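hey m, so remember when u said the tokens were messed up on ur end? i reran from scratch. heres the input so u can diff it against urs
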Amino acid sequence: MSTIYVKENTKKELSKIAGELQAKLGRKIDFDETLRYLIRIYRSRNRRKIFFKKFTEPIPNVNFEETYKELIKERKRNERDL
């Protein structure tokens, strides 16, 4: 085990997050578990950014305008069918 130094305000915020986790999970949570939770959230958000970037990249050899027109036509067909 090692010691890390944080400012008092940071410790208070960490304590608040730990308290919220305790209330949510219904058990005692220490700072280590709280920090691991925050790290997991951070990593998850980074993965989402990567997936979003990949999802929104242009696709080679696909014409955006034609694809968009096709999407609009299909959407209108779906609305008519409802």
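this time it looks ok to me. The chain has a mean pLDDT of 91. if urs says something different then somethings off w ur setup not the seq
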